[in-house]
Amino acid sequence: MERYVMDTPLNVVVVDDDAVICETLREFFLTLGDYEVVIAHDGYEAFDLLNKVEMDCVFVDFMMPGMSGLQFLEKVKAHDKSILVVVMTGYPSHDAIIEAMRKGASDFLTKPFKLDEIRIALERLARERSILKENIFLSEELKEKKALEDLNKRLEKKIREQSVLFMIGDTLSKVHRTEELYQKIVEMACQLVDAEKSFFMLADMEKGEMVLIAARGIDQEEYVGRWAAPLKDNMIGQVILEGVPLILKDIRKHRGPKLDFLPQDVKGALITIPFKIRNESFGALTVTGKKGEGVFSDEDLFILFLLAEKSSLTVENLILYESVMLNLHATLRALVSTLEAKDPYTRSHSGRVTAYAIKIARAIGLKQEEIDSIAFAGYLHDIGKIGIRDDILLKPGKLLAQEYDIIKKHPVIGENIVKHLGLLPKEKAIIRHHHERWDGKGYPDGLKGEDIPLLSRILAVADAYDALTSNRPYRKAKSRSEAIRILQENRFIQFDGQCVDVLVGILEEEGRTKEIKKGSEYQHMSMA
Predict the structure, then answer these.
(1) Does the pTM of the predicted model rise above 0.85?
(2) What is the pLDDT of residues 221-255, one digit of tens each?
(3) CATH architecture group of domain 11-140
(4) Dihedrals φ, ψ of 338, to 5°?
(5) Dihedral, 396, 461, 372, 228 alpha carbons, nearest 10
(6) Which end of the chain has the least Cβ crowding within 10 Å, N or C?
(7) Under CATH, what is the fold of the domain 178-318?
């Protein structure tokens, strides 16, 4: 916008029912400078000119037939506040002057007037007009600035929203278990709204209660999975039942029966929002303690609703996925059980191997996600044997070289069976690589050392131990100590030495426990 400066004469309109006054004023204006002067003989005619000619200022008679000067003044100011109005009268009064000024008149002239009075009035009007134009410019500039600021705020909010959505989507895309998902939700909630604590309550509508299943900033061991409360008669339960958020500026002011179930260290501001699947609440997310001892804002509430919307969809998909996978796994395990039932020597082999592998994984300190993968794929590690002929699979004696080559195909067959069933890559790897050797002489891919996936190395040790301690058509089961000796002799040859050491430690501890228990039973019998 260009800055306006009054450097040209005013555009003047004279309104008077006296033609002599009109002509006299025109002559005055022309004498004083090159003014644009328009004459109107009553208020209606002048008002009609508003949209036809440019008006900087109007000299209007106070007393006119039809529309008085004050009435015209009101109409002009309602139409355009920037037009300056000078009221003229031959019968001035104090009340008339005050009324004119109150309605927005810039000046008041008494008839008859002198040339100097007109000149002074015009100079004053020019200054006022210049200031007015400057104010209009500044006002418009301010409006533009505010509009720009508002636009920037909207853009910032949109960018923030997109950033939040990306972060939520990116985080959720890496989650494969509902337990992990709920923990990610409470962690993201704290991060997104600067909260000190967050927890998720999952509803059990049949029991009429809710249980805390994930938390941040709250003692996990004490509360997660152990902290329950009725859905009725407390504020957070009402959020789930009614599907509307709860917003408190300070929990301490609301402490009572409806919030007593909360730990005492949960304090400050609080927001609880419902999580819904197909418009039915299944839980609630709570954040408390805005950092800096502040209160949560409308933007915080908006962000939490974004989190709830995106996360609820992921929860629904994961629940559906896990349900399908559980049914699928049950079917596959039934197939494995059918396979093992054909051979009395391998009956329940997969279950025992999986149990040993889980113990090794826990002792090594693997995450629950890795342990779950072993539990899931361990039962299926020999499913490929379904594709091996019974005359080879159930042969009572030692296998010929050609027959052994056929047996060695079962890891690849197993991987192909589960390839399109939604297993994680590491779970497929367990099935494919559980017969690889540390020295690279295993099958099917001849992987060596740490190139073999860790979960496959764990299962290989568990598989070997169970095979050694089980009867076979061509040999009897070896003792625990004998099996341990064979495993130790093959440390970093056939097996990952660390996995062997861990399993040996577990077996020895179990052996000591059995001896202690046996001794205790013997002592009890002697006393009896």
Answers:
(1) no
(2) 777 777 788 888 788 889 999 999 999 888 777 66
(3) 3-Layer(aba) Sandwich (3.40)
(4) -65, -40
(5) 110
(6) C
(7) Beta-Lactamase (3.30.450)
